[in-house]
Amino acid sequence: MAITVAVSNQKGGVGKTTTALHLAVATALAGRRVLLIDLDSQANATTALGIPEATAELPGSYHALVNSDDVSPRWAQATACPNLSVLASSLEMAGVELELSGETDRLHRLRPVIAALADSFDWIFLDCPPSLGILSVNALIAADTVLVPVPPEQYALDGMARLTSTIERLNDAGQTRIDRSMILITMAENWAPAKMKRALEMRRTHGDAVLVAEIPHSNAIDEASGERTAVYFTRPNADASENYLRATAELIMRNEPG
Amino acid sequence: MAITVAVSNQKGGVGKTTTALHLAVATALAGRRVLLIDLDSQANATTALGIPEATAELPGSYHALVNSDDVSPRWAQATACPNLSVLASSLEMAGVELELSGETDRLHRLRPVIAALADSFDWIFLDCPPSLGILSVNALIAADTVLVPVPPEQYALDGMARLTSTIERLNDAGQTRIDRSMILITMAENWAPAKMKRALEMRRTHGDAVLVAEIPHSNAIDEASGERTAVYFTRPNADASENYLRATAELIMRNEPG
Ligand SMILES: Nc1ncnc2c1ncn2[C@@H]1O[C@H](COP(=O)(O)OP(=O)(O)OP(=O)(O)O)[C@@H](O)[C@H]1O
Ligand SMILES: Nc1ncnc2c1ncn2[C@@H]1O[C@H](COP(=O)(O)OP(=O)(O)OP(=O)(O)O)[C@@H](O)[C@H]1O
Ligand SMILES: [Mg+2]
Ligand SMILES: [Mg+2]
């Protein structure tokens, strides 16, 4: 029975895809069976794992959302990384919110998809788009837990209250299993005073919701994204590499039973 | 008769808001009457200019889109920066794409808004959200020109073709006046080889669509966003400051007649 993690933040470019990718890969390298579901029409996670965008012949997340009773485990495509599969995104995801807008169950389309796949995996990661629309809310409703990547930047901090209140509203309505959010500080620059201050402020405000590990702003990450791979394979000794591994260990400890 | 610039890129966190803000402020400081229309429910541009989110009492971009015939010039609020006004965003923007989804003119709601305000301004900047949905397409249809902020990063480069083909499709359908896009390289890091290469590649591929000025990744910018102001007022001698001024000069030269 898979543990499902929504990687979500409506602010753009905070490291959702990079984080979903690196946590998924490290969890797979730790021997768990992992599925990454790409919910963003940009398909960055799909491409990062060397998988082509989904099509009618090899369906993915879009097809799963529009025909949630047809989902087949073969849609979860194996990647070059052992134990890691991906449910690929595609361009039609860009129109899915409009397409589903008339459906009464439009916020509950992802749950049956995960139910259909959960027995084949130990962990499922959901890479969300930069918005709090139908796709992200589907992820929050379907997930067991949420991990929020947050850079120590003003606009990202400004946006946190909105994500938190969305989760609380879903909680009050009994629509989500998420009781505690996890925060991962991303793109940290501890030599920049303004950013250092904001990171400390985040830890003071949110206490142990904030993972101990934080991901530094790092050229190693940028390089790896250009090479369509995870930083563990290009620069295993980089700070970013070690911190994503530590973040994965924290994630597993907090969520796996025992 | 205002010149309208859509600042657009569906990739998140590429510097749309930072660029719309800094070009708008510099154009106003150069003596032009400028309006910044905040089309993003995150309201980062609104907040950056010290303006509260729009309400029924003091309406903004959301209200303008849903009642496009009611738009009053008083909705364009003066800011602390001389010659610069803003049409403020608000949380309801998050639902506007769904709200407008049934309307036949849902892609043409911004044009009458701009028509109602164009006589009061020389330049109008549109800060777009990180998507190619109804809001961004409204902006592309309503604008005279588009400026695309692009960091020299892989995912941002991957996304460019999609924005370009969206504009071409609108052009072929006779729905947009935009004939040439401008590209502004943002968050440049010329000492990082992978990023330097991508920036050069962008210039080779897109020729003089790419502005000469490029904006470096700079703590001065981060600092200024924390202080809710433009970098010209906090660190006028910073590289980022000078390059945004140069980018503004290029923008004006390319678009103002004579
Ligand atoms: N720690 C880091 N150091 C340097 N660059 C990073 C780091 N994390 C992410 N990046 C880069 O920053 C950009 C934004 O990251 P990413 O695409 O993962 O964010 P996102 O939140 O998924 O964006 P979107 O909102 O568009 O989905 C990417 O080009 C990525 O390669
Ligand atoms: N040149 C720069 N140097 C350093 N930080 C920058 C620079 N430009 C922008 N930033 C910071 O990067 C973050 C993303 O920038 P910004 O919010 O302007 O992008 P955006 O494209 O509008 O994002 P979104 O897609 O969420 O609307 C912000 O925290 C901003 O302060
Ligand atoms: Mg992403
Ligand atoms: Mg923005």
Largest sheet of chain A: 7 strands, mixed
Query: Strand order, biggest sheet of chain A?
Result: 3-4-2-5-1-6-7
Bound molecules: adenosine-5'-triphosphate, magnesium ion
Shape of chain A: globular
Number of helices of chain A: 11
Runs of chain A in which pLDDT lies below 50 for 5 or more consecutive residues are: none
What's the quaternary structure here? homodimer
N/C terminus separation of chain A: 15 Å
The helicity of chain A comes to 40-55%
Summarize the structure in words.
2 copies of one chain form a homodimer. The first copy, chain A, has 258 residues and is α/β, with parallel strands linked by helices. Chain A is 43% helix and 12% strand. The first copy, chain A, has 11 helices and 7 strands. Chain A has a 7-stranded mixed β-sheet with strand order 3-4-2-5-1-6-7, with helices on both faces. Chain A is globular, with a radius of gyration of 17 Å. The mean pLDDT of chain A is 97. The interface between A and B is medium-sized, with 35 and 35 residues. Bound molecules: adenosine-5'-triphosphate (2 copies) and magnesium ion (MG) (2 copies). One magnesium ion (MG) binds at residues 16-17, 40, 44 of chain A.
Summarize the structure.
Two copies of one chain form a homodimer. Chain A is 43% helix and 12% strand.
Fill in the keyword field for this structure.
homodimer; 258 residues; alpha/beta; seven-stranded mixed β-sheet; binds adenosine-5'-triphosphate; binds magnesium ion
Topology:
The structure is a homodimer of 258-residue chains.
Chain A: E1 3-7, H1 16-29, E2 34-38, H2 44-48, H3 61-66, E3 77-78, E4 84-87, H4 93-100, H5 110-117, E5 123-127, H6 134-142, E6 145-150, H7 154-172, E7 181-185, H8 193-206, H9 219-226, H10 231-234, H11 239-255
Parallel strand pairs in A: 1-5, 1-6, 2-4, 2-5, 6-7
Antiparallel strand pairs in A: 3-4
Helix pairs in contact in A: 1-11
